[in-house]
Amino acid sequence: MGRLVVIEGVDGAGKRTLAQGLTDVVTERGGTVARLAFPRYDDDVHAQLVRDALHGRLGGLGESVYGMGVLYALDRRAAADEVRDLLRHHDLVLLDRYTASNAAYGAARLRQDADGEFVRWVWELEVDRFGLPVPDAHLLLRVPAEVAAERAARREREEADRARDNYETDAGLQRRCAAVYEGLAERNWLAPWRVLDGTSTVDHRAVVDALEQAVAG
């Protein structure tokens, strides 16, 4: 059975870059890696509804924190069997966002912290009720809000199909979300967390070594 590792961070933190670096190290060492990114906009109707809501195309649905939280969770529930299958056939399964994203963004929108009602609700929905696979570890990319915002804006300019949504353009939300992520990491919420400096070059080999040691221990 492979390891399930989740990469978290605010928009523009560098999650895709980290995932690629870790993939390169594991494959160089003879291992196999599978990757998924949530929301799965191209594969799941719930994620497609999320995208429409984030761009203001579903009336007031985007304003409902719990309504959006359910859609995010249903996207992951629909992918749960695929994740389990990937874990049976690969040494490492990397997820770009997972349950913690739902907890962090929803809590930030409600101006709650990591100990708040919404974070507990997400656990009860996604873990207890939906029975989603629980990660072996989280990797949190810590990046100042202004750096993440510039990266997200640059990505929007460079990628024709990557217009920023309502969450990504809300600087206050991004700062509050980063604070919730820090709280989740401090509590090792759902699984152990490792915080990485997203403003400097990440030592991908050291991260893979640490993940292997954590699982072995």
From TrEMBL:
Annotated family: Belongs to the thymidylate kinase family.
Protein name according to UniProt: Thymidylate kinase
Enzyme Commission code: 2.7.4.9
Pfam families on file: Thymidylate_kin
Record-level Gene Ontology MF annotations: ATP binding; dTMP kinase activity
Keywords, alphabetical: ATP-binding, Kinase, Nucleotide biosynthesis, Nucleotide-binding, Transferase
EC main group: transferase
Biological process (GO), any one: dTTP biosynthetic process
Domain Thymidylate kinase-like per the UniProt entry, residue ranges: 7-162
Matches recorded under PANTHER family: THYMIDYLATE KINASE, UMP-CMP KINASE 2, MITOCHONDRIAL
Source organism, top-level taxon: Bacteria
InterPro entries: P-loop_NTPase, Thymidylate_kin-like_dom, Thymidylate_kinase
Catalytic activity line of the entry: dTMP + ATP = dTDP + ADP
Origin species: Goodfellowiella coeruleoviolacea
Cellular component terms (Gene Ontology): cytosol
